[in-house]
Amino acid sequence: MKIKIVIGSIEAYGTLSNTETASAVVNSLPFDSVTHRWGREIYFEVPLELELENGKEVLEIGDIAYWPPGKSICIFFGPTPSSRGNEIRAYSAVSVFGKVTGDAEVLRAVSEGERIRVEVAD
């Protein structure tokens, strides 16, 4: 399954894994939210309340994850304030359920408070 992420003039796509988290996200699409920045991560609240699934704290560029404490989806594209050195580290464990296809660096242009829409990609 693929998703489309639209933030202003920025479009990004993601490929989702075969996990319970990914299924729950797909079943709730489409949804709109507001972006927040945390280092080189954007995150946004979603209308889901999910348990942690195969939790990870150290991630890769382009990882798309669900963060249970914040009921948010996070997209990572570089170090965060929790990172040690050049690693990409979440604030706390997240459920990785997908990966940005293409260059996740386009998300660097996203500002705090921008509207975001996530939908199933055609």
SSE arrangement:
Blueprint: E1 2-7, E2 10-16, H1 20-28, E3 31-34, E4 36-37, E5 41-45, E6 56-59, E7 63-67, E8 72-76, E9 88-101, E10 115-120
* CATH first level: Mainly Beta
What order do the helices and strands follow?
A: EEHEEEEEEEE
- Looking at how many chains there are and whether they match, the oligomeric state comes to single chain
Beta-strand proportion? over 45%
What does it look like?
This protein is mainly β and 122 residues long. Strands 1, 2, 3, 4, 5, 6, 7, 8, 9 and 10 form a ten-stranded antiparallel beta sheet that branches. Strand 7 and strand 8 form a beta hairpin. The protein has one domain: Cyclophilin, CATH 2.40.100. It is built from one helix and ten strands, in the order E-E-H-E-E-E-E-E-E-E-E. The mean pLDDT is 96. The longest helix has 9 residues.
Task: Fill in the keyword field for this structure.
mainly beta, 122 residues, 10-stranded antiparallel beta sheet, Cyclophilin
Short recap of the structure:
Helix content is 7%, strand content 48%. The protein has 1 helix and 10 strands, in the order E-E-H-E-E-E-E-E-E-E-E. Strands 1, 2, 3, 4, 5, 6, 7, 8, 9 and 10 form a 10-stranded antiparallel beta sheet that branches.
